[in-house]
């Protein structure tokens, strides 16, 4: 009897549905809707993401850059981000009026021009105008989910696993030019414990993964969202073509 390799067995076990109507399983939509409803209902929380990102060099060598991102959130317009990776340390402050991007180790900070009114708008503005990308930012900017649902072309349950002490379902999606995987607890809070994405627009198909820890009872004070430069820090301009303070992805 010819044996299947592990890769071939997985392909056979998760063969695509036969028709376009079946490419998105109803349960895959429902779990995403539950997650979105719960997430948008949170007024304040803290999120820690232990991240790993594939960086592809000009020689086609892939590097796995690890890091941690800590988010302090108060809806609709308070956000602090602390980023630490193998190669960089950054901070971001948004107090509803002004936004500041900081490189504390280098002693530089930059103001984001024309800060919008909400967290979601602020993150989009920072990405589109200044090229600043934050890990798992789509979760912070999640709205009703209607826009996401219209972009999903495939969605199915892969199986079940355990993340720490929690049993989670593993879900896979295709959204535009991105492959998305979510690991969501079977019981309790429907917020994801792990997320993985693959950028299919990039010919090298780099993968990003993050293990998530949520504190839904957090109540961050207003002072945490405002930035005051330490003595000796220097303000510099921040533009979309300025790579001096490019955020780690």
Task: Outline the structure in words.
It contains 5 helices and 12 strands. Helices cover 18% and strands 39% of the residues. The chain is an alpha+beta fold and 249 residues long. It has helices spanning 6-13, 26-41, 119-130, 137-140, 146-151, and strands at 44-56, 62-74, 78-85, 89-94, 99-103, 108-112, 152-163, 166-175, 178-185, 194-199, 207-215, 234-235. β10 and β11 form a beta hairpin. The N and C termini lie far apart (46 Å). It has one domain (23-235): outer membrane lipoprotein receptor (LolB), chain A (Clam), CATH 2.50.20. A 12-stranded mixed beta sheet has the order 7-8-9-10-11-1-2-3-4-5-6-12. The model is unreliable at 1-13, 15-21 and 241-249 (pLDDT under 50).
Report the top-level CATH class.
Mainly Beta
Q: Which fold name fills CATH's third level, the topology? A: outer membrane lipoprotein receptor (LolB), chain A
The amount of beta strand, in percent, is 35-45%
SSE order: HHEEEEEEHHHEEEEEE
Arithmetic mean pLDDT: 86
Major beta sheet, strand line-up: 7-8-9-10-11-1-2-3-4-5-6-12
CATH superfamily name? Lipoprotein localisation LolA/LolB/LppX
**Total domain count:** 1
Overall geometric form: globular
The radius of gyration over CA amounts to: 20 Å
Main beta sheet: 12 strands, mixed
Determine the N-to-C terminus distance.
46 Å
Q: Count every helix, treating DSSP H or I runs of 4 or more residues as helices.
A: 5
Number of strands: 12
Structural class: alpha+beta
Q: If classified by CATH, what would the architecture be?
A: Clam
**What is the helix fraction of residues, given as a range?**
10-25%
Unreliable stretches covering 5 or more consecutive residues:
1-13, 15-21, 241-249
Keywords: Signal
Signal peptide: 1-20
Protein name: DUF2092 domain-containing protein
Pfam family, one: DUF2092
């Amino acid at each position: 009897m010819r044996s299947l390799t592990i890769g071939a067995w997985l392909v056979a076990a998760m063969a695509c549905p036969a028709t376009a109507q079946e490419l998105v399983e109803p349960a895959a939509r429902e779990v995403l809707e539950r997650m979105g409803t719960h997430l948008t209902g949170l007024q304040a929380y803290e999120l820690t993401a232990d991240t790993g990102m594939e960086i592809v060099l000009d020689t086609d060598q892939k590097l796995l850059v690890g890091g941690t991102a800590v988010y302090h959130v108060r809806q609709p317009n308070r956000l602090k981000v602390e980023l630490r990776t193998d190669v960089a340390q950054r901070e971001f402050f948004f107090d509803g009026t002004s936004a500041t991007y900081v490189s504390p180790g280098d002693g530089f900070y930059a103001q984001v021009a024309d800060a919008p009114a909400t967290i979601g708008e602020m993150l989009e503005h920072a990405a589109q105008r200044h090229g600043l990308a934050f890990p798992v930012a789509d979760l912070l900017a999640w709205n009703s989910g209607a826009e996401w649902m219209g972009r999903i072309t495939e969605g199915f349950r892969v199986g079940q696993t355990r993340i720490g002490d929690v049993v989670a379902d593993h879900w896979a999606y295709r959204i535009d030019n991105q492959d998305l995987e979510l690991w969501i607890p079977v019981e309790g809070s429907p917020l994801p414990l792990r997320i993985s994405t693959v950028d299919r627009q990039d010919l090298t198909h780099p993968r990003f993964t993050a293990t998530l820890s949520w504190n839904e009872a957090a109540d961050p004070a207003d002072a945490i969202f405002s930035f005051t430069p330490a003595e000796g820090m220097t303000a510099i301009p921040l533009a979309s073509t300025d790579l001096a303070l490019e955020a780690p992805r």
